[in-house]
Amino acid sequence: MSFSLARVATRNIVVLAALYGLPVVSNAMDIKLINDVMILSGEVVRPDLDRVKAEFAKRPSITHVVLRNSMGGNSWTGYRLGELFRERGVTTVVSGHCVSSCSRLFLGGKRRLFSSDFPQGLTYVGFHGHYDFGKLNPQAVEKNDQVAWTKQFTDNKVDPKLLNRWIKIERRAGDVRFYPDGVAPRWAANTFLCQGTESRRPNQCERISTNALKEGIVTSNEPFRSPDATSLLYGQREKNYPSSNFATLEDITKWPINTPRARSDYKLFLNAALPRALAVSSDGKVMSWRANSARSTDIALENCEKQSASRCSLYAVDERVVYVKP
Length: 326
Description:
Layout: H1 3-20, E1 30-34, E2 37-41, H2 48-58, E3 64-70, H3 75-88, E4 91-99, H4 101-107, E5 111-114, E6 124-127, E7 131-132, E8 135-136, H5 138-143, H6 146-153, H7 160-166, E9 175-178, H8 184-187, E10 191-194, E11 206-207, H9 233-240, H10 260-270, E12 276-281, E13 287-291, H11 296-307, E14 312-317, E15 320-321
């Protein structure tokens, strides 16, 4: 690849990562400061402790630490950063997913919140044990005193039985994951225990009858909106396609195409991957949807109008009903 082509490819990767709120692959967490908010994303590595301390020293006014789309990393650093956040008295926020070592950063917050930066189905914090090459290392769990540390940083609210289950999950790909309460009507739960062998998570995971607030994972159900949320893909989609309040996503009684086939297809749409969109024709005869594509709105509308003699409009985008009845 020529130098100019390589530069273009790199720039495209950076742009896509920014839109989706994903970190560019590096050897440290990405640190972004916006006023009194610190945004951390990506892999947790040892040098991050000193880097974050340095940022606090330069800007002691930081009140919120947003943890965005991190699958974790170095466990020792996770504990130490969590302790640093508790010492500083900051509020920690999950933006997208925050798993493994990242979850310890999150528990460090004096106040702990989910964000509204991403759809609720993509917003969760995941906990498990310690692993070597993807397999559970019980000795590391004991060495780090994970049980006592987790109890302390959940303000002694976590269920010891549930904690004992998640520190024994055999695969690193597994976790106990806590979602915001808004997913419960669709998934019949907002807490799941995943073994890491499921092909579709969390839908095929064990449903747990509890929630993040009860277990001391979050301290409030009040969502936080990050200062850069509108620059992310889902923030842009929400701005362009706001909720119409016509119906909730799960309320099929207001679904404008009342046929068994349409209702079946709509249920498939509800379980489809984000970003997604569904369009319906004004005469109530045609529907079309597309999932797992940033162009889902355009494609759903185009395919609907190819099949219909009447005009099509969007019914749902991601996790919102945007439909306005003609």
